[in-house]
Specification:
Layout lengths: L20 H17 L3 H4 L6 H17 L1
Length: 68
């Protein structure tokens, strides 16, 4: 399907599986962003009725979180 895993293998593994470190760093940043977005009640509970308002709330929260 075109999806490649970017999770590194365990250090104790005899034959390590190669992974892309730059892709893993980006994945880590995105996971941290979603973890921080869950702190915003409006986004975590999906209070908005239309998708445009929900996406704008996500954009606003992302800007505020990464501005600080």
């Amino acid at each position: 399907m075109g999806i490649t895993p970017c999770i590194p293998s365990q250090k104790s593994r005899k034959k390590p599986i190669p992974h892309d470190k730059a892709h893993y760093k980006l994945r880590h940043k995105i996971e941290n962003m979603f973890a921080r977005l869950k702190d915003w009640r409006r986004i975590a509970t999906h209070y908005d009725r239309c998708p445009e308002l929900f996406l704008s709330a996500i954009a606003l929260a992302s800007i505020v979180l990464f501005w600080v």
